Amino acid sequence: MFSLKHSLPASNGQHPQSLSRLKVHGQQMGKARPSGIALSVWEKFTPQKRLDRQMYHYGNFSQNFLWGVSSSAYQIEGGYNQDGKGQSVWDVVSNNPGSGIPEDVNGNVACDSYNRLDEDLYMLQALKVKSYRFSLSWSRIFPNGRRESLNQKGVDYYNRLINGLLARKITPMVTIYHWDLPQDLQDIGGWQNVEMINIFNDYCDFCFATFGDRVKFWMTMNDPQGLAWLGYGTGRIPPKITEPGTAPYQVAHNLIKAHATAYHTYDKYRASQGGMVSIALNAEWVEPKDINVPRDLVAADRAMQFNLGWFAHPIFKNGDYPEAMKAQVLVKSELQGLSQSRLPSFTEEEKNLIKGTADMFCANHYTTRLVTHILDQPTTPIGFTRAVSFGMRRLLNWIKEEYGNPDIYITENSVATPREWAFDEIDRVFLHKTYIDEALKAYELDGVKVKGYATYLMDSFQYLYGYLFGFGLHHVDFNNPNRPRTPKFSAHFYYNVMRDNGFPLPEDEKMIYGEFKKDFIWSNGKGLSIWDKFTHTPGKISEHDTGDVACNSYNKMEDDIAALKKVKVSHYRFSISWPRILPDGTTKYINQAGLNYYKKLLDSLIAANIEPQVTLYHWDLPQALQDVGGWENETIIERFKEYADVLFENLGPKVKLWITFNEPFVITVLGHNIIKSHAEAWHVYNDKYRASQGGLVSITVNSDWAEPRNPYKQEDYEAARNVVEFYLGWWAHPIFNGDYSPLVKKSVLDQSLFTPEEIKRINGTYDYFGLNHYCSVLAFPVDFGTTQHFEADSDRTWLETGSVWLRMTPFGLRRLLKFIKDEYRNPPIIITENGVSENGPVDLNDVHRKYYYEKYINQVLKAYLLDDVNIIGYTAWSLLDNLEWGVGYTERFGLFYVNRTDPDLPRTPKASVSYYSSIISCNGFPDPASGPQECWNPTPTIADP
C-alpha cells in the first residue's frame, strides 16, 4: 500500500504539435473522440444530475463476497534486521537521515507485526473479516534476493501467519512483491536489469511451491505503475532514480514481463493447488473537465490509458500497450529528435506471453482526477486522496467495458486522517459509506462483477509520510513500545457493513401507505421595513437582489391565488408586513391602505376556498423601532402587543390560524423579549377575540434534528440532545413547559431568568406547536478550555441541495415530531415550513423536490400512524421562488418558477406542483398494491418531461 497517489507521466500532456503529428501517423489521438470502447461510461455517468449521482443505494453483495482488510510487509512488520532478514531498498533509504521522510522515522519497528503476530490475528478474528491481504517480504525469505540465501525463519513466520488465518476461516490474499526489493538486487540495477525477470520468477516459484497448498489468491506485485514512475521517474521513492524520459518505461517493460512469466510459472501448480493469480494495479478515475468538449474527453481517455492501461492493457487485452500511449510517446520522442520511441516494444512472442495473464482484476482505488486538454494542464488530483466516491462506480464500469467484464476485487481503498484524530475519524466512516455504496451500485445496478473489497487493517508506516497520517481501521500507538492496537469508529462501522453484506434498506427509508386525518391542513407558504434598508446596503446580498419587487405579490395577487388553486392546498401561509400596517411600528398612525390590501388578500383566499394562515412577524421589523434598540429594548413588548391587537381586531374575523413569530432564533439570541411579546399577543387574542373569532394562536420555531456523529460515544449522544434542546427548546420550553430548560439556563441565560410572575404569564401560551424543519445534523462536543460546546456536521451520504446548509434527511422529521410529542405532552403540531432549494440553471423538472416532498411527508405520515403524534397540518415552503434573505434569488425553494427577466414576473409551475397536489388530493399515500387510485393522477405541467 502507498498513501501518496502519484501523478501520471508528463507525456500525457496535450501539445498542439503532437496533434498534427498524430494525424500524420493516423493514430486515434488526433481524432475528435477517443475510440476506446469504454467511452460509454463517460457518456452515461458524467451528465448525471446531482440527485442521480448522489442517491444512496440500498442492497447487498453476493453471499460469497470477499470482505477483507489489507497491509504490506514493510509498512507493518518491523523486525528489519531480525532472524536473518536481509536489507530491502526501503530499509536502506529510510535509515538514511536525509531520506526526506518527516520526523526522520522509518519502518524498523513499524507495527512490530513480526513479533506481534498473535495480536494481528486477534484483530482479524474480532473484526470477522473473510480475507486478509498481506505481502511477503522478499528479503525476509531470500535475504539477498536469490534462492540460495533462503532464510527458513522468514518462511516460518509466513507459515504461522497463513495457518493462523486459515484456522480462523480467513482467506489469505498474498502479494508476492510490494516495492521492498532486496538491496542486493538493486545493486545490480534493480528493475532496469532484464535479469530481474528470471530472478523474480524464481522467487515466485518458491512462494507458489511453499505456500500454494494453502494460498489460493495471489498477486504477483502491487502498484507497478507507482514503482516505475515514482521510483525511476521522479525519484521520490527507492531506488530514487530520476530518469523520467526513459527509465519508467524500461522498468515497466520488465515488470510486465516478470509478472507474465510468473503467471505462467503458476501453471504447473494450477491443477493441484487450484489458485488464482493476478496483479494489483493502482486505478484512479479520471473525469473530463467539460464533457461537452471533445478534446477533454480525449484527454480523459488518454489519462486512463496512461495510468491504468499502461499495465492493464497488455495483461487484460492484447499483450501490448494502449494505442493512445504508444502514439503519444512516439510523437514526443520524434519531437525530441530520437530515432525510435522511448516506449519499448513487445515482440509478438512477448505479446502472446503477456496477454491474459490475470485470473481476476485487482484494483487499488483512492481518488478521482480532473483532466483538461489545455496545454500544460495535465491531470490533477481532486485533493490528496480526497473522497470522490462517484469515481468508484465509474471506474468499475470502465474496467468492465474496457477489459471484458472481469471479476474485480477492490484490494485497497481508504483515506488519510491526521494521527491526532486517533479513534474518532469520521472521514473514514464517510469514505466507507460512500465508496462501498458506489461499488454496490456497480454490482447491483450495472452488472459489474465486483467480488471483494479490502481496506487498511491498521495505521502503519506510510512511506514518504512516515507516521503523520493514519489509513487504518485500528489505531496503533507508535510511541508505545508495545504498539497497542485499538479499534476506531471506522472499525465498528466496517464490521457492521460486513455483517450486513452491504447496506440493507433501513426502516427509516421504507415507505408507509395510508392517509392523514380527514381535516388535515395542507398548506403552502411564501415570504421587507428593516429589510428595505438592509437590501439596499452594498455588499449585503447579491447585486440587484433586493426586496423592492421580489415576486411582486402586492400587485399580482390573482396570479398567486391561481397558483395556490393549481397546487390544491387547503391553506396558505403568509406574513403581514408590520411597517405596511404601522409605518413607524406604533399605533400613532395606522396605514389603512395596507390593511385594505390584506383584507382583499384574505377575501380572495376565502373565495377560492383556501384558509389563511397568518404570521404576524417574519423578521421585517419597522426601521423606526430598530433605531431605538429593536428587540433589545423592552418597550418593544408593548409595541408588538399593540400591533397584534390591530391585526386581530381588523383581520381576525377572516383568520383562524395565527403565528406570532417565525423562527425567533434567527432574529436575535436575546429571546427574552420575544417570548414575552409572544405571550402578550396570545393573551390579547385569548382575552379579547377568541370567543368571537374562534381562532388558534401560536409561535413557530425552527429546529434541525440531531444525531450523534459517533454512535459509539455517549458524549455525542449528549451533544445531539443538546442541539435539539437548545435550538428548539430555547423557545418551546418556556411556552410549553413554563421556563427555560436547565441546559439553556446553564449555557447563556444566567443573567436573564424569568420572574415567577412572568413564568405564569408565558406558560401555556399556545394552541398548537408550529414547526419549521428542513434537515438534520450530526452533533459532537468540542472543548474550549474549561467549557464544552457542541458543533454539528453533515453525513456525506445525505443528498445535497441548492443550499450548503441543507442536506436531505427525511428520517429526522419523524424523530423530531416524536421528540415534541414526548417533551411537550403531545400538542397539536402544524409543520409551518418544509422545503428544499436548487441553484444554478433553471430546470423546471425539479425531480429532487419531488423526491424531498415524497420522503419528508411520508415521514410525517409515519409519525401520525405509527407514533401517534398529533400532527394536524403540513406546509410546503415555498409557493414561489422568493427572495431568500441573505442569498437573494440564488437559492430557489419555490414550486413555481418566477422569471425575473420578464417585467411581468410570470409564474411557471415546476414538475413538483403536480406531485405535491397529488399527495394533497390523496391526503397521503395510497398503497399501489391496491390498484390505481383516482386521486393519484398528477395533472401534467409544462415542466413534466
UniProtKB/TrEMBL annotation:
Top-level enzyme category: hydrolase
Quaternary structure, from the entry: Homodimer.
- Species, as recorded: Xiphophorus maculatus (Southern platyfish)
Q: Which domain of life is it from?
A: Eukaryota
Q: Under the GO molecular function aspect, what terms does this record hold?
A: hydrolase activity, hydrolyzing O-glycosyl compounds
Keyword hit for Protein biosynthesis = no
Q: Which family does it belong to?
A: Belongs to the glycosyl hydrolase 1 family.
Question: What is the taxonomic lineage of the source species?
Answer: Eukaryota, Metazoa, Chordata, Craniata, Vertebrata
Q: Name one Pfam family in it.
A: Glyco_hydro_1
Keyword Transmembrane helix among UniProt keywords: no
**PANTHER family in the record, alphabetically?**
GLYCOSYL HYDROLASE, LP05116P
Q: Please give the Gene3D superfamilies that the UniProt record associates with this protein.
A: Glycosidases (3.20.20.80)
Instruction: Identify this protein by name.
Output: beta-glucosidase
Q: Which SUPFAM superfamilies match?
A: (Trans)glycosidases
Signal peptide boundaries: none
What keyword terms does UniProt attach to this protein?
Answer: Glycoprotein, Glycosidase, Hydrolase
EC number(s) reported in the record: 3.2.1.21
> What residues form the catalytic site here?
E833
GO annotation terms (biological process): carbohydrate metabolic process
